[in-house]
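Technical note accompanying the year-one report. For the benefit of new consortium partners, we illustrate the data format agreed upon in the data management plan: each record pairs a sequence with a structure-token string. No post-processing was applied to the example shown here.
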Amino acid sequence: MTPPQRALVRILLLAVVAGLLLLVFPRALAVLELAARELRYFWWVILLVGLALWLIWGLGRR
């Protein structure tokens, strides 16, 4: 599997996991909608998502 294919598989897997989590926990979708509307109060959500993405791809390279 080439590196671009591996990256695509990771992105698709992340999207599937996120979709499944939103189906299992519907309140999470409400929190995300609220966060999108009120970014000045939920700026930490963006930081947590960025940290998660950095950890996924940063630790995967080592």
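Partners are asked to follow this layout when depositing records. Residues 3-60 form one domain.
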